[in-house]
Fold this sequence. Notes:
- The complex is a heterodimer of chains A (396) and B (603).
- By secondary structure, chain A is of the alpha/beta class.
- Chain A is built from nine helices and twelve strands.
- Chain A has helices spanning 2-26, 43-71, 84-115, 131-160, 164-168, 273-277, 280-302, 339-347, 352-360, and strands at residues 161-162, 171-178, 181-186, 220-222, 225-228, 233-239, 244-248, 253-257, 263-267, 315-319, 331-337, 393-394.
- In chain A, strands 4-3-2-6-9 form a five-stranded mixed beta sheet, with no helix packed on it.
- In chain A, helix 3 (84-115) runs antiparallel to helix 4.
- Chain A is elongated and about 95 Å long.
- The termini of chain A are far apart.
- Chain B has 603 residues and is mostly helical.
- Chain B has one domain (2-554): Cytochrome c oxidase-like, subunit I domain (Cytochrome C Oxidase, Chain A), CATH 1.20.210.10.
- Chain B has helices spanning 2-22, 27-32, 37-67, 74-84, 92-128, 136-155, 186-215, 228-260, 283-317, 324-338, 353-365, 367-381, 390-407, 409-412, 415-421, 425-455, 461-487, 507-522, 524-537; strands at 270-271, 274-275.
- Chain B has a two-stranded antiparallel sheet with strand order 1-2.
- In chain B, strand 1 (270-271) and strand 2 (274-275) form a beta hairpin.
- Chain B is globular.
- Chains A and B meet through helix 1, helix 2, helix 3, helix 4 and strand 8 of A and helix 5, strand 1, helix 9, helix 10 and helix 11 of B.
Amino acid sequence: MTSLLVIAVLVLLGIAIWQLTKIFHLTQIGAATYNENSEVATDRDNSVNGYLMFGFLGFIYVFTIYALIEWGHFALGTPASAHGPQYDSLMATSMWLIFITQTITQFLLHYFAFKYRGKKGKVAFYYADNDKLEFIWTIIPVIVLAGLILYGLYAWTNIMFIDEEAKEDAIYVEVYAKQFSWEVRYAGKDGKLGKANVRYIEGVNTMGVDMGDANAQDDIPAGELHLPKGKQIIFKFRSQDVLHSAYMPHFRAQMNVVPGMVTQFGFVPTVTTDDMRQDAAIMKKVANINEIRSKKSAELVAKGESPLEPYTFDYLLLCNKICGASHYNMQMKIVVEDEATFNKWLSEKKTLAATVKESKEKPAAPAEGEAAPAAKPADSAAVKTDSTMVAQVIKK
Amino acid sequence: MSAVGHEVHAHDEHGHDAHDHHHKQTFIEKYIFSLDHKMIAKQYLLTGTLMGIIGIIMSLLFRMQIAWPEESFTIFKVLLGDKFAPDGVMKNDIYLALVTIHGTIMVFFVLTAGLSGTFSNLLIPLQIGARDMASGFMNMVSYWLFFLSSVIMVCSLFVEAGPASAGWTIYPPLSALPQAIPGSGTGMTLWLVAMAIFIASSLMGSLNYVVTVINLRTKGMSMTRLPLTIWALFITAVIGILSFPVLLSAALLLIMDRSFGTSFFLSDIFIAGDVLHYQGGSPVLFEHLFWFLGHPEVYIVILPAMGLVSEIMTSNSRKPIFGYRAMIASILAIAFLSTIVWGHHMFISGMNPFLGSVFTFTTLLIAIPSAVKAFNWITTLWRGNLQMNPAMLFSIGFVSTFITGGLTGIILGDSTLDINVHDTYFVIAHFHLVMGISALYGMFAGIYHWYPKMYGRMLNKNLGYIHFWVTAVCAYGVFFPMHFIGMAGLPRRYYTNSAFPLFDELADVNVIITIFAIVGAAFQLVFLWNFFYSMFKGKRAVQNPWRSNTLEWTTPVEHIHGNWPGEIPEVYRWPYDYSKPGHDDDFVPQTVPMKEGEEELHH
């Protein structure tokens, strides 16, 4: 059946080409030849293609409008981080600029192609230069881009350079990547992540935390990323094998995860998962997705397979740097909740030290939690001493 | 200076010509190990076209997988075999291999060698008035190295564990560790070997182009009388010489890491249950080295297309190029800036954010010369007498996609905005439109325009029109919707998007994209048919079918070694005197002396 369809399509395509050739051919009958050689465009060709150029302008406009209406809602919606609105407004400014420039320049290009289509006997205007004109269209992009650059750099500095005041009660979270999953580690009561290196990986200590480090004693590992609303979060990213990229689209946040070094990104989550589920745009999106899924489920059930689960909105952490065969499915759920719920959730988690101790069943591990005052005064967040290259700089 | 060089050269070549009359060239001398730049150009074009066919078929395969994830297709079974497509369902590691090799082939083998290799070889000697390249032998070696590297790249597709599959950017550690992905074994080794040979080939070609342009211009052909094609090809060669060696060094260091246990790019790795010995290297270093070539590379791809389009557009508008000097200045500006913007690929790589600020600044600057070029092309059309030959259509199409694709560069070049669209389909849409499709349009325009020069016959224009219009619609149909799914946060290089319910609503768009891709690719068959059929059965070309000014149209239709049967013509004017008042014809070839009292414009 499929092959029959393929053949039918091919035949139809063939006929289409043949007919199109014929049309183009017919347009040339009786047309004066511009050149003795018939494979050079004639006045008819110029005319037909000139009109088609104008038509193509229509195609670009209609396609753009269609896409905006049909697909405009794909955009990620309300940003869930403090810097998100600034990001979105910069994006909106750039987009407006792009749409305006696109509309005007494509119009000029295609309209000129249509308007000045060639005719025998017509003479083009010998016009090689105009310094004033060129100056104008050099200076306009200069001014516009200067504005964009300044706005962009201002936002970039805001996002990437985190203030010291914010650091005070910031929550440090390590996001640890491996083929093909994520783990997280919270700094615990002392607010400091213990040192780590892949050489310490052993048994339940899957992130290679140095259990001899005092700061590591109260570190808490987790399989889900929970964040308290309104607190400065500073992520430290580590990878044990290849490059990954921690992409949290709803927070307008992304940072590559590089083996052998610690990278960093920080933001303040501003909308809890529950609130986001009540967001009008998100509700519409979810309803739309569920409609699609229920249709697909019906098909699956008809085929005797199990139906798809209905979708509820959740924030996501995705891998966004090619990392191997299952790159497409390296994800983690992010939950944003109010601080109390977050603290409760975290306090119910076991510390890594306790887990390690349990698994080894020997009492050698030092006391947890109390070790905090004894922490070294060195950069609290530095997981490894050679991690001088960090993607965000903490202002000292 | 150039004139002296040319005379010596010409004298030399006359000797050769006399020699050739006695000994008819054998088949091998003429068609295989040819020293003639025109033949080498055709060899580049054919090899590039074949590689292009492979690259496009690959893209169709993975597009089908994205549109209809994990469905069974007979074509997968036939082309990928049981191992990579059991029961006709594409496996995830071969998906990544297809993506990787598609990128590699299209960027390097089609749009670098196929485009600039073809037209540099064909046009540089012909348009500057030289009998051949400065070194015909080196030129031949350059082509055969390219051929060898193509063969190795194609061979790597048949390696048991699969070809390289770490993305065309081959970031280590993924590309260095076979434990991380099977393609990083023999497949990756062959990839690196092929690329090392490719770089050698490219360097030889580029050196030759630069020397030829500087030394072998005919009498009167000053730098400001060069056609813009030559300027573009010349500067392209210069960028190639500056940046390709850096990729070679990156490739060599990666080979060392892979095979000899060094730690340039690798550190602290735990994989498959073992800690590896690597210590102290940094993948970010590789990214810097790679993009130091990688970014200029996109200009190596697009500049020749810009040059071809400038020439074709003026010739078909019957009007001088607007702002000749501004066009040269913007080529130079783009070339210079292209070497200091590589960091915009690495805003979120983990490098110091301060560097991000610097690279944002330099990157957005590049929009200025690009905008100047676009405006100048549009003004060239204004009040012209446009001859809508297929080459002209592709040139107009080039400007259209260059603008559409270029504008989104404002978003990606801005470090802040890059945070959320980095490595999504938005990026794919951007670079395919601005360098992929645009450069292909430039290449098609060049082929339609110079086909009579290459093969002495004309391409069928009606097939050309069909080819253009379907391609133009499909190119937008494929890449325009990608902006939207990219803005939705859909990452690139995902085998299937079904692992995230969030992306379910994008599935229909992916089907639309794939259908446009299949139709667009199918209509390239029209071009291929036209290309090969016309080679033997096309209408015979006249000497100057497009009534152009440049020197290549003063050579006889039949190719001869040495290009001109008699003396090399002398040049008296710039190449853009179209529709100049005071002349009978609407074109004045460069070989026509200035009339008495005729004004030479300060263009």
